[in-house]
UniProtKB/TrEMBL annotation:
This is YihY/virulence factor BrkB family protein. It is a multi-pass membrane protein. Pfam families: Virul_fac_BrkB. It comes from the Bacteria. Keywords: Cell membrane, Membrane, Transmembrane, Transmembrane helix. The chain crosses the membrane at residues 31-53, 93-116, 136-159, 179-200, 212-235, 241-264.
Length: 287
């Protein structure tokens, strides 16, 4: 028991110490702002592409996938603004605006990469062309994933209706579309976390090496967002302080909290790896 406490203290001390000493708070700010700046271009580009391909209901699905895992007090104002932006007809995004949309969308991916490289304490020597190409691939894959999920959510109610007619006993287990949207959105987050931890930072890591940070991120995402939502509900002065900018400022603070938790997840993985490497070296020493 005492040994476990000592190991936990050492690992957490290493992770938190490196986060604090290596500009983790500043990186979280950079990541939060980059994520907010990347969100609109990505959704605008993805929605325009979906409309071009005939998926007219994509915008509603995209908004749900992005914001269903956010607390209502944080998600509702900005989701409403995003939905308004996405309903504006756009013909330029797939022509002239595609370069700007891709650039700002990939900036969000690059911010994730910088945060993870610093957390894992590695230096990225790959060419900028390779990095930007990989980031663009992430954006395109995410768009394709959203399109697939959008199509599934259109087909799902039909399949549920058929299942209920032929298998009445299954009705209590199907839940509502809101529950399924939340489950799908949560699954998208988990898959995204696995992908960015495995492939964005320099070096190679196995799924076994990254799972502690993933669990940490998911658990404290829920805790942090719940605490912040409670604060907004009872003690917030954001609306009176920032007036029309309140929804943006609330989103920025929320993304800052999530970004810090995300980087700390990488720091935790790196600290565990350093501890295991140090223990392995001690074990190899001659008696």
């Amino acid at each position: 028991m005492l040994r476990s406490l000592a190991v936990t203290k050492r690992v957490l001390g290493d992770a938190l110490g490196h986060f604090n000493n290596d500009d983790g708070w500043a990186l979280a700010s950079h990541l939060a702002l980059s994520a907010l700046m990347a969100l609109f271009p990505f959704l605008i580009f993805a929605t325009s592409l979906a409309s071009f391909l005939g998926a007219e209901a994509f915008s509603d699905t995209a908004v749900h996938l992005v914001f269903d895992t956010w607390p209502d007090q944080i998600a509702e104002p900005i989701a409403r603004e995003v939905a308004t932006v996405l309903t504006v007809p756009r013909g330029d995004v797939l022509t002239v605006g595609i370069v700007a949309a891709a650039f700002f969308a990939t900036n969000g991916i690059e911010a994730l990469r910088v945060g993870l490289n610093r957390a894992y304490r590695v230096i990225d020597t790959r060419s900028i062309l390779w990095l930007r190409t990989q980031s663009l691939a992430f954006v395109i894959i995410a768009t394709a994933g959203f399109l697939i999920v959008s199509s599934l959510l259109v087909v799902a109610p039909i399949a549920v209706d058929i299942a209920q007619r032929h298998l009445p006993w299954i009705r209590p287990y199907l839940g509502t579309i809101t529950i399924w949207r939340f489950i799908i959105a949560s699954s998208v987050i988990v898959l995204a976390l696995v992908a960015v931890h495995l492939w964005l930072p320099a070096g190679r890591r196995s799924l076994r090496e990254i799972w502690p940070g993933l669990i940490f991120t998911l658990v404290f995402w829920v805790v942090g967002s719940t605490v912040f939502a409670t604060y907004l509900g009872y003690f917030s002065s954001y609306v009176t302080t920032y007036a029309g900018l309140a929804s943006i400022m609330i989103a920025l603070v929320f993304l800052y909290i999530v970004s810090a938790i995300f980087i700390l997840g990488g720091e935790l993985n790196a600290a565990i790896r350093r501890y295991l490497d140090a223990r392995a070296k001690v074990a190899r020493l001659p008696d």
